[in-house]
Each structure stands twice: as structure tokens, then as C-alpha cells.
Amino acid sequence: MKLNKEIIGNHNADLNSRHQTKLQFTASEVANTEAIIEKLMAFQIAIPSWALGTGGTRFGRFPGGGEPRSIEEKIEDVGLLHKLNQSSGAISLHIPWDIPENYQSIKTLAGEHGLAFDAVNSNTFQDQADQKHSYKFGSLQNVNKAIRKQAVDHNIEVIKHGVGLGSKSLTVWLSDGSCFPGQLNFRKAYQNTLESLQEIYAALPSDWKLFLEYKSYEPNFYSTTVADWGQSLSYVQKLGEKASTLVDLGHHLPNANIEQIVALLLMEEKLGGFHFNDSKYGDDDLTAGCVKPYQLFLIFNELVEGMDARGMNHAKDLGWMIDASHNVKDPLEDLLQSVEAIMLAYAQALSVDRKALEKAQEENDVAKAQEILQNAYRTDLRALVAEARLRTNGALNPVELFRKSGVRNELIKERGAVTVATGL
Amino acid sequence: MKLNKEIIGNHNADLNSRHQTKLQFTASEVANTEAIIEKLMAFQIAIPSWALGTGGTRFGRFPGGGEPRSIEEKIEDVGLLHKLNQSSGAISLHIPWDIPENYQSIKTLAGEHGLAFDAVNSNTFQDQADQKHSYKFGSLQNVNKAIRKQAVDHNIEVIKHGVGLGSKSLTVWLSDGSCFPGQLNFRKAYQNTLESLQEIYAALPSDWKLFLEYKSYEPNFYSTTVADWGQSLSYVQKLGEKASTLVDLGHHLPNANIEQIVALLLMEEKLGGFHFNDSKYGDDDLTAGCVKPYQLFLIFNELVEGMDARGMNHAKDLGWMIDASHNVKDPLEDLLQSVEAIMLAYAQALSVDRKALEKAQEENDVAKAQEILQNAYRTDLRALVAEARLRTNGALNPVELFRKSGVRNELIKERGAVTVATGL
Amino acid sequence: MKLNKEIIGNHNADLNSRHQTKLQFTASEVANTEAIIEKLMAFQIAIPSWALGTGGTRFGRFPGGGEPRSIEEKIEDVGLLHKLNQSSGAISLHIPWDIPENYQSIKTLAGEHGLAFDAVNSNTFQDQADQKHSYKFGSLQNVNKAIRKQAVDHNIEVIKHGVGLGSKSLTVWLSDGSCFPGQLNFRKAYQNTLESLQEIYAALPSDWKLFLEYKSYEPNFYSTTVADWGQSLSYVQKLGEKASTLVDLGHHLPNANIEQIVALLLMEEKLGGFHFNDSKYGDDDLTAGCVKPYQLFLIFNELVEGMDARGMNHAKDLGWMIDASHNVKDPLEDLLQSVEAIMLAYAQALSVDRKALEKAQEENDVAKAQEILQNAYRTDLRALVAEARLRTNGALNPVELFRKSGVRNELIKERGAVTVATGL
Amino acid sequence: MKLNKEIIGNHNADLNSRHQTKLQFTASEVANTEAIIEKLMAFQIAIPSWALGTGGTRFGRFPGGGEPRSIEEKIEDVGLLHKLNQSSGAISLHIPWDIPENYQSIKTLAGEHGLAFDAVNSNTFQDQADQKHSYKFGSLQNVNKAIRKQAVDHNIEVIKHGVGLGSKSLTVWLSDGSCFPGQLNFRKAYQNTLESLQEIYAALPSDWKLFLEYKSYEPNFYSTTVADWGQSLSYVQKLGEKASTLVDLGHHLPNANIEQIVALLLMEEKLGGFHFNDSKYGDDDLTAGCVKPYQLFLIFNELVEGMDARGMNHAKDLGWMIDASHNVKDPLEDLLQSVEAIMLAYAQALSVDRKALEKAQEENDVAKAQEILQNAYRTDLRALVAEARLRTNGALNPVELFRKSGVRNELIKERGAVTVATGL
């Protein structure tokens, strides 16, 4: 155990006085801080197993040190994050990068860290060493029935692993598409993909969900077969009740209004969950909130309003996951920063004066509507997020404590300086 | 009559010898040129009444001369285009810019020019002088029921004008949306819009179609309530069989793969028609094919393949319209260039070796698929388009004849040098 | 006088107690708040005369009421803003929309409102009624020497008006460019533009500056002759010391890193000033900070660092102006919101721990650098901006006071409900 | 030798009759075909050594077979291309992927294939096994002087290899930049980079050129230190006469007008050369002309006009290279298609009626200017490109012959089915 209660307790004791002052001031500025804190305490964001190592680009990869070498070490890393922020109580596994050999022992280990297993992820965008057919020309869309079957079977196997671990959802991200005009018949690619998805859907346990991710481009550079929210919606509507759309913030064309997409998917009862990250150019997979924090707030503003309108449970009725890559930062620090940014955006959205906003909208009082949103956003709510951590035995300042406690050095000692975790 | 058969006949006589040489050579290079020519002869592209005058931007407008001052003069202008290219046999009217006072006389006039009335267009993006409520905050989406009703009533009035003239479809383009975060509740805006559209749909004659256009942004700069193909599809699926989506090439986010969207809308049986134009940055409303002619070809490639797969009639089963603005060119010359570019792209798509392409796709032979498409595109098929005109008594070179015949000067003499046609 | 000291004083008295609490808390959280407040007090943002009326798009314009009908009323409006926020102490005029008839009386009027005259703006993107030549095909770039001369003469006339009023700079924004491939010879267009600019530059008084704005597109939709920062830099380097580049935040291609451009222009000693606004898609001319407030902060972060590195005076050594359009908000409220957002971003940038940031950069401690920037940004500094207003006799909450005091109604009574101010 | 004169001769004999018919027809349609053919014969496009194997993305790589395993095999592959099209008479090496051990033997081998050595390329975007310092945080920009020195030394070593082989230019592409706001001080990064470039420049032989490439983003996702043409220009102007800018078509923000950039760089006498490819979304590295062939033509239109205006030699005064990645096509077929598309665009640009275009531009006859460009583009000039090949003993249809002759199978037999060439 790299971090124990005592270390965290000492850290909190040092910072608590200043924290309390700030918390009190915040409570004097913002209505219902208690209700906000409680919602923050309940909110958990799953950590993807593939984000625990240093990421890379097609141009290169510059590994850090102490990266996890096994599923056990990945669970340990997420456990560490969760101990620090008490908001990362789930892990999202990726098959075949994280094939569990013994479900029970893995579940026990996760349980010791207070972690649940969130959505399991299939991988048909790479060829594995022992694979019969190649996905060079797509998987679920492939013109070759045998290749489609191989990809369907892989997804069904992923579901089985998920069942073994207690996961309740499958995330399907397809890189299927084409690089050149003429390569694909778009209609047939759609129909092959739909048929394949239907076979996977048929294998889904009755209490499971299937999340279908979309992405506008990359790694295919002419077309993608599930390219935008409209295409994902079209598939999941045909699949059935258990299927819904997963939104990855980086998977849009330039300037897309993601918050509107989120609101409409919620309205259509087909929003399934999120992959959080941030980006400036494309699927940059940067730390959540590092480039466009106001957009993140606006998305949460739609989520809170839309989920409340449907009487949904914020913490449980959608899948909340991070999907990021860490080329120049320590992955664990980056993930702590992402979770903090997400929690803060959620807190800001919770603090919006909904009645006043609704009134301004009904009166077309645009300047007022902006004042309401910006007031919520400009108010410093970090003390509420910190308080939620404090009450659940997390650390007041997770990044600072992570650094001071020297965890990374311990990991490097244990695991070596040149380990490379599976992932991108 | 600015141009008569004799003038056109003389023009063609002068160019015919060279044309025949080129046609023969083309026929020696391309299979089935006769079938292509026949399809070209049947293909008509509607001219929008608002594109006959000089366009402008918010920064200014630099009128040309001889612009049409009335619906009659607009019909005359389209008649002129049609006489030249025999491919512009329809006019698309815009209400209230073109309110017909006497349906019969207008129909007779159009008939004399060989013109039909294509889709009629409503306008709820501007306030009219005598209007009770303002559309400043939207029309069909408006939070105020009375304003929504005014906009619905206007659309029903437009249908009535269309019925009077023999039109069979209504195009609805909504500028509705918002300029600032917080201004709109996206879900309610959607639901208000849907309800309004349902009222309009209910007033649609049984043999009519409703085309719902989408646009990513402008004139609203934060959100648009029918913003992309996915949103338009969501509405028209809820409306019913007579409703379908209209694609304007300039209404997409940067880098969107429009040809894939077209293929999927066709597959969903919800593609209604087109507004052709070209663009580099946004809704630039430039001449069709002037910036991205290969994209235009790729779109027609999907159209030909997709319509044939469903046994559709190329000429009749979709609405083909131009929607462009002419800030620095003579509007009539610009429209002739647009029609030529569209016909050429259609001809190229017709000449694609479909069997070979299908085979290449089935074999994932990407380089071959590219060779097939590029061979069709690089082959000069202008002689086929010209031949289609020749056989229908149009001009071999419409732009050249328009210039030589001095039509614009005649129009300026008749109508004045500083007339400004209604439109944008 | 719509607002007097008493009204403002009463407003401040009502809010002061809460303000003081907030200010004290802020001072306990942030170092050097006094220094920040003093810099905020000195910082003035010029209001463009064309932003005082309701804007519009090519699709329509929905006027508000009480818009200024004359240069005097425009000065009155800016005076009103300045009285409220004490940060709008300058007006930027646009010729020929605001031709002063008697310099002295206008200067006196402005003086009574505490206003200076910032950059004067020429207009060669529209034709004026009495103009000999048209700018349809460009002004300073025009192939016709006589048209170029007309445009040069207009700029020289604008300088004369500016001299009469005590302005010290000329802003040149050119819409010159082309709509279609082939329309322009890019090189000749550049050279004509350079030659024209050199003639204008030669007429510049010795203590004046020339700001050359760039814009990637609109109203020309294929090319723009001063299209990006690189092109503007290329011109102003050839012109000489008094010429520099003006950055309008909305004038970039999608995803451009504007803060880097700003840093490099400062480094090249060729940054002249700013047109502040915000945008999601293009030159949307929205309220500053309404869509991308973090970007605004990052820009100010570069400005503070870069100006300090060169020993520049923040308030005086660059031109700070707003350039926005107000289609759905009250223009005066919108401008108050813009100024507030700019001041806040400036305050946040001033509060960045520069030494710690420099250290993090020297150590490639990327996560730390992010912590430092985000800490400055997430801290609520509105009390500092409010305090700067309070100390200069402005209002603690300008938008609220503007509304409560009923100024707009007074203006409507005085000026009418359907006035339309000159502008876009 | 996979292909000999006899095989090519037989291929040409089979196709020649039809080719001659097409050539004659083309000559009857286009003026000066002989002059065009001669220019095409002289035009050579360098093949990058890293494009001879299958490319990949960060998500995966799907190798083909028979990829070159050594510099010798790369030369053999380029020799093969050149034998087929006689337009690929140069190879561009990448250090350290292609370190020559014996200059003389490599030069001899290249000479046997009729190949020259074009620009040599340095690599400071990846870490090599034996490298002391990491480029994780940049190379020439690095805050650490020792790392900058290592990167400078590497570039100097690359120059030495180039000298040994008879190359005359160094291409510098830097991935240097940052992934997060705050990571870099932009000004210092610029200055470090400039200083490093000056050291490299100082080591340049007197008859060498240095090409500085720019790229808007990737692999850094917040800022790039040589991000656009304006930044590259700013560096090369400070470096001196031997330095110029290299344009890679995929390295721009969405919608950039590349042809204008090319024209202006030529005008500034700072255009050095090209990396040809095509793209839809970003730096997609697709086959030249496969997505936007009209843009490729417009770029060559500027090149021909601009080079002629300065009396430059088309074939020799700029560096012409391909830079592409081949994820789903046979690399050699893809390169043949790229060269064909480039030659065709060049031929089209050569066939533009320059006098008529200049006249149309002088008269602002925009529709006419478009007619002139589109006439050149729509005319099928493939027979001229084929004739240039025929006269230089290349193949009339290189892709077809490559396939029929079974070269790839021979290569697979020789080199194996699972070889992976160095590169991306």
C-alpha cells in the first residue's frame, strides 16, 4: 500500500484550516452547498486500464517509469487514485490488453481497493498475434463474413470476461471505415456493421448495456463507419433498448456543439455514457478541462438539466469514464487532474440557478441567461469538491499529496524505469 | 425573347464540327455514352428565384445591372437559362419574396418558358413589414406559442401558393437556434420545433413532400436547432413518410464527409433532395464545383449507386436545386456554370464502371477502386453534356452564347442598371 | 445624463458589504491583490462606435430600440458604459459612419464623458453613395490604379479626422480578396496592397500608429489578401516602425492557437493591438469570453508575460478594443459583459505565479505548469475587478445597475423604438 | 532486376495504338502539347525512403509483404518506380532510419537505377536506442542546452551523410511544441529553436539548402514551435539565403488556402520545396490528389505562374518530394498513383491559357477566369503524361504493368511476407 490513511490524514490536517475557511466562504456565496457536496460524494468516474501508462503518437512514444505491467498492477494504480480522490471507484478494462485469468482473485483485489468494474472494451482495431484474420480492412463492417464473425466472437468473449468480473456494460469503439474514396460501399458497410452489432447485442446479458461510440476520423482518414452521433443513434435505435450512444469529447469535427448533441441524445433516451478528455485539434486525448473547461461545464449543465428532467440518478444512470493519453505527464497525475476538472464542472453545473435560467429562457433574456451560467462557472467551487473528498477520506489536494508521498519513485523501484504498459 | 432558336442554331452550327469530333472521341473512350446522354437529357436542376440577382454579405452588396424586379422577370431569367442549357426546367420560389398574384397567368408564363414549379420555400428567418411577431428569437422553436403559430401559418400559406402553381414540395430551412450558451433549452427548442413541423406536415397535400434542411451554423452562432443530418433525420422520421431531409452542400462543419451522409440518408429512405453550391470555409454559396469538383463527383457517385440500388428514377425521385449567391459574377453566368458542373459530375458518376468497382470493394483492392473512380473523373465528358444540350435544342456553349448575344445589356436597358432583386 | 453619481453611489452602498467580504476573502487567497487592482484601474478598453446598435447577418437584422442616431449619441452611450465600469474610457470611430462635423465640439462632448478617441477605422469594404469607383473587386488590392487611389485617399481622410479628434492610430481592415480560384493573381494583389499601404503610411503623422488587421475569410470566400498573422506581419515589416499587426480573435481558421500568435507578434515587436470578441465557428462577433473564456485568459497570460519581458506599459503600449456584433442582446449590456470578461481575464493573468511557472517550464514539469495556470483561472477574482470599479466611482455590478436604472427605456423614449444605428 | 526494358517495351507495344489516338486527339484540343511533354519529361519527384513500407497510425499497423529491409532494398524499390514512370529519379533519405555505411557503393547502386539523392531528413522526434538525452520535451527548442546540442549535432551528422551521397539539401521537420497550456514559454521556445537552427545553418555547405517544414499540430496537441508558414518564414528570413520554407500539403489548419501561401512564399523568395500528399482531416498522408485533386492543380497553377515570373527552372529550383503513408494500399502502387496525380496537375497547370487568364484578371472577369482554369483542368491530359513516360522508356500504364508483372510477389519471395520497413 503506497498510501495509507495516516498519510492522507496528516496531509488533510495540514490543509484543513485553510480549507474550512474557503468552504465557509463558498457556502456563504452559493446556495445548497450541502446538496452539491453529497452529489459529488456519490459521483464516480471510471479509469480506463489503458491510461495508466505513458501514451504515444504514431511519431513516437516517450515512456515514463513505473508503469503497470499487469492487470493487478493496473488495479493497484486505480486503487491509488481512488484512495486520493475517492471519485475513481471503478476501472474499465480493455480486452485483450487486460485478460483476467482468475476472475475471483481479480475481483477480490479490486474489492480491496474499493473498485468496481465498469464497462469492458473490445478491440478490433488491432491485430493480435494469434488472430486468424486481419482487421486491416475493418472488423464488424468487413466484406468478409468470416472476419466479421471473428470480430463478433471477440466481442462476445469480452462480454464473458465482463460477466466474470461483474461488469454490466460493453463499450464498442470501431475504427472501421476507409482511407480512400471508392474503398467502401457506405451502405453495405453500414449494413454489415449493423448485422454484426445485432449478433453481439443478442449475446448481451439481460441486465447489460451496449455503448456504441462514434468518431469522426482516425485511424481511417476518408470515412468512418460510425462517424457521428447521428450514425451511432441510427444503429442503437435499430439494436434495441439496451443499446445507447457513448460520447467521447474528442471525436467530433471542428467546432461541433457537443452540449447540444448530449442534450438531444438524452432527450431521445439514447445517451449511454461518456469518455472524458479534452482536445484542441482532433482526438488529442488531453486531460479533461485543460483546453476548454467552459465547454466541459456546458456539457454538465445539459447533463444535470436533462437527467433531472427525466428523473435519472446522476451517479448511476450513465457511464462516466475517462479516455485520455498521457504523452508528457505522469499518467497518475494527469488522471487526478482530469477527475478534478470533471468534478468541478459537475459542481458548477449543480450550482446553476435552474429556476432563474428557465425564466430567462422563457423571456428570451439572453444576457441574463449568460449572467446565470457565468456566475455559476466563475464562482470558485473547488472547496466543495475538496470537502467531498475529505468526507470520504480522500485527500484535500490529491496531486500535491501524490507528489510529496513519493509514490512514483516507489513504483519505479518496484516495477522498473522502463516498463511499458499495454495501451496506445 | 432574348434568345431565339435561330441564334442558338447559328451558335451550334459554328461549333458543331469540333463538337462532333470530340463526341466521337469520347464515345471511343467511354462505354454506353448513349445511355449517359439520355439520362443527362432527362435531368433538370431547379433554379432558385433568389439567385437571379447579385448576392451580398453582411459587409456589403455590390449590385450588378438588369436584375429581375418581379416574379415575371425571374421566370423570364430562368427561361433564358433553360433555353441555353435545357437543364434548368424548373424554378423554386421563395415566399414572401415571390408572392404570385394570379396563379394562372404565372403558370402560363412559366409554361411558355418550359418551366415547372419546384419546391416552394418559406421564410421565417426575417421579419416582414406587416408581421405581428418578430422571429428575433426563432420561429418554429420559439418559446412563445403565438410566434410559433405565426410561423406555422406562414408555412401553410406557402403551401397554398405552391398548390396554386402546381408545386409538389415545401422546403423548410430554419435559422432557429441561439447565439449564446444558456439562451435555449435545447430539448424544448427541439420539441417546439417538432410540434410546429407536425402542424405544417398536417397541412401538406397528400401528394406533397416536405424537405427539412439542416445547417451547422449561421445566422445563429452558438447552436442551430436543425443543425446536422442526424437532427434533420430525427425530425423527419417522427413526421412521417412525406418528410425527408434536404442536403445543402455548404451546411456542414469543416471536413464533413458529405458523400457518406448522402449514402446513409438514401439507405434510410429519407433523402429528399439537394441544394447545390460549393464552399471553402462555410456556407459560402459559391458556384457548384468551383472549389471541390471531386467532392461533387463523389456525391453523385453515391447518388447513382444508391438510387439504382433502390430502383429510383434519377430525374424525378429527388429534388435537385441550386442554392447559391453571386457576389462578384453575373448571376446568370454563375448559374450556367453551376448547372454545367453538376451535369458533368452526374455524367462522370454515370460512367463509373460499377461492376469493376463492386469487385474491387469486395476484394479490398483499394488502389484499384481509386483507379476506377479517378478514371471516370479524369475522362473529359463535356462532349456528352454538350450533346445532351444539342439534342434538346440548347446551346453547345451556354456561357459563350450568353455573352456574345448581349443578353445582359438588353436586360439592363429594360430593367435598369441599379435594380436590386429580392433575395440575400 | 442617464446615470449620476448618486444612483451609482446608492447601488454601491447596497452591495458594498457583501463586496467587502468577498474582497477580503480574495485578498487572503491571492498575492498582491493591491497591485492587481491598480493595474485594473488603469486598464481601458475602447468601444467601437459601430457596436452600439443591434447587429445583423446577411439573413436579417432585428433591431432593438433606442439605438444612437448620431456620433453625439454614440459618445453618450459610451459615456454611459464608462460611467458604469470606468474601463471604457475611449471610443473607436468608423469613417464614414461617424464623420465628425466640428472636431472641437465633439472633443468637448467626449471630454465631458471622460472619453478619449482611440484608433480611427477606415471602410473600403462597402460602397458609399457618393463614391466614384466601386470596391466590388477590392480596394487597396484593386487592379485599377484609380480605385486604389480612391481607397488610399479615403484612408488619408480618415487620418485627418483622427488628427482633428486627437486619435493616434489608424486601423486598416481590408475585406480585399477573391471569391473564386483564378479571380486574383495573389502576388500582384499583395504588391498592389503593399504599395497602397505605403502611400497611407507616408501620410501618417509621426506620432501615429497603423494597425493592419488580418482575417482568414469573409466576405471573400476563396482568398483574403491579408488573411493571417503571417501575411499581416509581412506587410507591416515592409511598412516600417509605425506599422503593426492587429489581432481580432474571431479572424482565424478553426483551432488556431491564438495565444502563440500573440506571443510571437510581441516577440517580433509587431503586435499593435486587439479586437476582442468571441466565436465558435468563424467571425461570429460574440461577447468576449462567452464561449472560450479560458482561451481569453491564455491570451492575457501571454500578453502580461510578453509585455513585462519587454518592459511595456500594459495600459498604453497596445491598442485594446472590442469588436462585436449584438444580434440578440441589448448592445450596451453586451458591451458591459465583454468588458467584464476582459478585465477578469486580465486579472487572472496578473495573478499567475510567474516565478513558479517559469520554474515549472524550465523543469518540463507540465502537470505543475497546468496547476499554476488553472489555479489562477479557477480562483474567483471578480471582487478585484469590482473593487477597481468602486475605487474609480464605477458601479459594483454594472449590468444590474444598467437594468434597474431603466436607462434603455429612457433611450427609447428619447430616440425612438425603431432607430437603426450605422454599422453592420 | 524485376522489370526490364523488354517487359516495358511489350507493355507499351500493347497499349501504344490506343495511346497514339488519344495523344493525337489531345494535341488537337490543347496548344503546345510538345512543350508540355518536354517539361513533364524533365520533372522528377523524389521518393522518401520511409514511404516504401506500410504505414500505420497510433492505433495499429497492418504490414504488407516484401517491404525493403535495408537502404539497398529501398533504392531498389525506388529504382523500380523510376523504371516504370521515369519521374521518380531521386530518393530522399531519413537518418537514422537509412544510415549509409559505404557512400560510394550506395551511390553506385543508386546510379545504376538512375537515381539521385534528394534532401536528407533529420529525425529529432523520436528517441534512438543509443541516445543520451530524450526528445520527450522537444529537441531544437529544448530548455536544456545539452539536449539542443545533441539535436544540432544530429542534424550536422545528417548533413555529413548527405554530403557523402551527393545530396544538396537538408529538410528539418520538428515535432517540437507542447501538449498543454503553460508547458512552454512560446518566445523562449522560438529563440532556442532559432539559435539551434543557426548552428545547423552554420554547418551547411555553401551549395546546400536548408528546408524548414511547418506543421500546425501533431504529435504535439497544444502548440507547435514551427506551426505555420508565417512562423517558418520568420525563421528562414533570420537564417539567411540558403534557408527556405518547405510546404507539406497536409500540415495546415482546416480550410487553409494553400495555393495562396505557395504564391506568397514564392514572392518572398522563400519557397524551398514540397512534400506532396493529400488529406481530408489532418496530416492524413494520403495519396496525392486522391481527395482534393483540384486543389493540387491550383497549387501547380501558382507554381507555374510564380516560377515563370521569376525565371525559375521548374524541374530544378524547388525540391519536389512525396511524403505519404500507406496503411491500406501497396506502397509502390500508392506512390505510382501519387506521381501520376502530381504529373497530371503539373500538365494541367502548364496548359492554362496564361495570357487569357491575366486579361480576365485585369478586367475582373471572374466567370471567365473560372472558365479558363476549369477548361485546363477538365481537359484530359493523361496522354501527355503517358507520352512523357513513353519517350523516356517508362511504361504507358505503370500501375497496370506493376500488377501484371508480379513484382510484389517476387519481392515477397525475396524479402519475406512479414518484413517491416523502417518508417512510421
TrEMBL record, chains A, B, C, D:
<keyword id="KW-0413">Isomerase</keyword>
<dbReference type="InterPro" id="IPR050337">
    <property type="entry name" value="L-rhamnose_isomerase"/>
</dbReference>
<dbReference type="InterPro" id="IPR036237">
    <property type="entry name" value="Xyl_isomerase-like_sf"/>
</dbReference>
<keyword id="KW-0464">Manganese</keyword>
<protein>
    <submittedName>
        <fullName>Sugar isomerase</fullName>
    </submittedName>
</protein>
<feature type="coiled-coil region">
    <location>
        <begin position="350"/>
        <end position="379"/>
    </location>
</feature>
<keyword id="KW-0175">Coiled coil</keyword>
<dbReference type="GO" id="GO:0016853">
    <property type="term" value="F:isomerase activity"/>
</dbReference>
<dbReference type="GO" id="GO:0046872">
    <property type="term" value="F:metal ion binding"/>
</dbReference>
<keyword id="KW-0479">Metal-binding</keyword>
